[in-house]
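1st attempt posting a full record on here, be nice pls
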Amino acid sequence: METVADNGLGGMTIIVATLLVGMVFAVLPLPDFVPAELGFLRPDWVAMVLVYWLIALPHRVGIVVAWVTGLLVDVLLGSLLGQHALAYVAIAYIALNLYQRLRMFTVWQQALVLFALLGLNQLINFWVESIAGDAHWRMWYLLPALAGAFLWPWVFLFLRAVRRRLVVM
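the predicted structure (as tokens):
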């Protein structure tokens, strides 16, 4: 039985494709009928997908993938070059150090850890923006981390189904 994982490039193609879908979700505009305030609830989809692959396949996805992904997100969103790269490298480092423990957690326990990782991501982005004189603290600044934690079980189950269906190893 031929699998995607038999060719090392095929598995990486699936990983890159899911990261690109996360980038599309990052720039997808909200419908007109949705209040603008709900934009604060938009999670960092790319970070969530990245954390999944860091936990699932740490031998394939690591610091370099996080850094390159962060640079691509910086270019895509028009933010300071290196801002998301720094944040993604920080959360990748933590996720790689904890991946064996995270695999043993239930999906809801993983969601709590993801809340902390996404919160760190938001705080690093705020820190970089404040150094550049571009940020204004709002009470709702950490809401994307909370939204990401609530969405984590479904993102995790979907990406795991994709990984198992396409036999990405």
